[in-house]
């Protein structure tokens, strides 16, 4: 698809000399349009006993983050993120002991995690510069968000509407031969509001392995990326009670899939677009309505070119296509309608219906074209202040009907009670479910050229169409409050999973051992504690500390489940001058032991970033940010993969290494 709208962005900006440090002038208040029904869901859930983390655009900008993965890795307590090879790449994630597949990813409320391809996320396509805020909801959120929101939900909210015009242009460079240019502008004209933004990220990248892992046959050793993103939003405020909005988000990416053996060039070339139509209506002071329709297309062509070897295992100067523009991708479409009723009594009510259609195919990992429809009805009853002054609670139910699976129903009860202004307890208890994805159901990496019933090559991998959905019971209980300048929240979480989908278990066909998927007869138990604290040391210094301790095991015993860290601690120290527009931040992420893929342990590392920002100009319209990522140049494994030795052709294991020490310098002009 050709991009229909080309956003003009600044390609070079001359940085003026730093002005002398001065008093911060009074900033004008920015009036943001009133949030609508869907946009208030996270805040509502927070009031009724759910933990919600909010990361703002200002926090991202003042620390110079490049992509969302880095932002979440360093700033969100309780969320483990391990980027495989730096920005805009695949990653491992765990939220309160969950797996990747148990986190639901959204952009502006639109589901990006395809039901059939639930390993996908927006993190290798979304740059940090387009973000208004990031909302992270913890615990089971199946009532409003449906399948896969077992461990929680991450909603990336892009630049929002406002009446007062503003904008910015920016550029950045980094020490991995990378750069960024970005711009946005928003404003209004009468009853009409608009937002336009664009971003370009490009980097040669870094070499993500140690020298022992690199085979002479690999000639492309840097993992780079090219990410181009643009968005357009329009809203018509028909009157004070109704608004019609339309938004379009487009991404055009080329991201390397790096390997330390045979690799000449391997690229995922992707185009992705999201078209969303929303209508909000306040019928009266007692009734609010919301309707959303969306179309999401994700189209990737995968090219893998290997160098060829002679009989002695040395480069012979030739190349061969392993994949030549092979397609993998999917389409999602859906419609969602909600209504909230509040007649001023003891309760308010939310009712809704959700219809989603998924389709996808994969010529790379051999998954045939598949389609599925899911229709859900949901409702929630919430207490109001008329019932209890210091206590709120909410009870929700969702019924799901999938075209390829049995019907399922989940429920959720949450509550929050304030003993006084300085102490509260809150809880979340309920059930969740996760449907098996297309890989687990329909994978067909099975070759039998001779048609003799014996798999070729001594290996195969196939799906299991008889898989049943996972079902889980979850509970979060927390106590929190504040003591003078110290705030805290201690959460105990527990989740028990039945019909656990065990990935790549051994399967024998005609004497050949391959891999498949099963529903385990054992129960999986995920239990842990999460502590989140903030200390305002004085007007300038603030410290944030969080710690998560997780046990994720079959039947509560044995080895930790793969890719889920046993412990993780995040520490952040912020300095913001009260006399000048200047600040410094130090962020550290200490990851404990991880039972990695292929039975190899990893983890036990600490990554520290240091950043500083300085704003200057009559209206502070100029801002410089310097960031040193992984300042101690820690060498740590993010994933364990398997390669092929040049000389023998035998397989070997190698570590993918996290981002090396990298310097980032950015400049932004706001107007």
Descriptors for this entry?
671 residues, mainly beta, Maltoporin, Chain A, 5 helices, 35 strands, disordered N terminus
Superfamily (CATH H level) name: TonB-dependent receptor, beta-barrel domain
Instruction: Determine the fraction of residues in helical runs and give it as a percent range.
Output: under 10%
Q: What count of helical segments does DSSP give?
A: 5
Strand content: over 45%
Number of domains: 1
CATH level-two architecture:
Beta Barrel
SS elements, strand count = 35
**Mean pLDDT over the full residue set:** 90
The coarse overall form would be globular
Given as residue ranges, the uncertain stretches (5+ residues, pLDDT < 50) are: 1-33
* CATH structural fold name: Maltoporin, Chain A
Please give the largest β-sheet.
Answer: 22 strands, antiparallel, barrel
Q: What is the CA-atom radius of gyration, in angstroms?
A: 25 Å
CATH class: Mainly Beta
Give the termini separation.
Answer: 33 Å
Give the structure's gist in a few sentences.
By secondary structure, the chain is mainly β. The protein has helices at 41-47, 57-63, 68-75, 142-145, 438-442; strands spanning 52-56, 79-83, 91-95, 103-107, 110-111, 131-138, 152-158, 166-174, 178-189, 192-206, 223-239, 242-256, 263-284, 287-309, 315-342, 347-362, 367-383, 391-402, 408-420, 423-434, 444-445, 461-462, 470-483, 486-498, 501-509, 512-519, 524-536, 541-554, 567-576, 582-595, 601-616, 622-629, 637-644, 651-657, 662-670. Strand 14 (287-309) and strand 15 form a beta hairpin.
